Amino acid sequence: MEKKVRVGVIGCGAIGRDHIRRLVGLVAEADVVAVADFVPEAAQKVAAQYGITCYATGEALIAAPEVDAVLITSADPSHAGYVLECLKHQKYVFCEKPLAQTAADCEKIMQAELACGKRLVQVGFMRRFDRGYAAMKQRIAEGKLGDPLMIHAAHRNVSQAPGFETDYAITRVAIHELDISRWLLDDEYATAQVLPVRQSKATRGEWLNPQMVMLTTQSGQRIDIEVQTDGAYAYDIQCQVVCENGIVNLPDPAAVVTRTGAKCSFDILTDWSQRFIEAYDIEFQQWAQAVLNNRLTGPSTWDGYAACVAADAVMLSRKTGKPEPVNMIEKPEMYR
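Below the sequence we write its predicted structure tokens.
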């Protein structure tokens, strides 16, 4: 491996372009050397902008000898296939969430990675790199607050793109809470449930909004997650961990407070990329360095699998109307 990781990017949509900008401009340990996209014109435009190679397919990019590691930001249904192709070539791969759309595909990825003998896959759960969440985990780990008992969380969105569906509220939105809650508690889920809730007239589509997700962990902790996917007052992420001797809250992003006209106010963000922009920066800086060190430390294939299994249980509960078990395979030693 050279002093810089030569990265190929599959997927040149909005998040792909933003990550390319980030890798090129902020991550000294990385060089973006190639791109590919299902829409050839999208990849060609980005390739021309940065003076890099454009490949006709993701598979061709993965096999290219000048590509050391691959970043996957393509459409969700393509993730599993591209990750498996990367493992076939034993190349490091960063896959934006979700790792796959089914638990079975996650298990296939896990088996392929285990056959490689080391971790090669990192999943894009960027909240673990947010300073607020990291500080919460540190405060819990210190033990002064006692054992954590429950989590109250909320994920509120202003709007969604056309074509949004009810299941996406779990697989694309609440998937972050499913990951970060088990990370904060250092525990796996036991059950998952969706509770009926009055629907918002502000929803500009036919999907269910809001949804209330409830989970229990194997040690008996409970998590409630309010998922509001449309019509909210802002993009607002809230998280409170209740412990035996106190609580710890996720801090709001820093904002200027204005006092005028007998009112005190401050702005709230409306876009996810603004809210977690620093977390993305830290995430990719650490990933590139970890690849150079030949030892990944970020969210693993197991974490992608755990989130997928929990999401499946949540969506099943919405259909059955009762809590559903979160049944997982035994955790391989490589991910412990």
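The mean pLDDT is 96.
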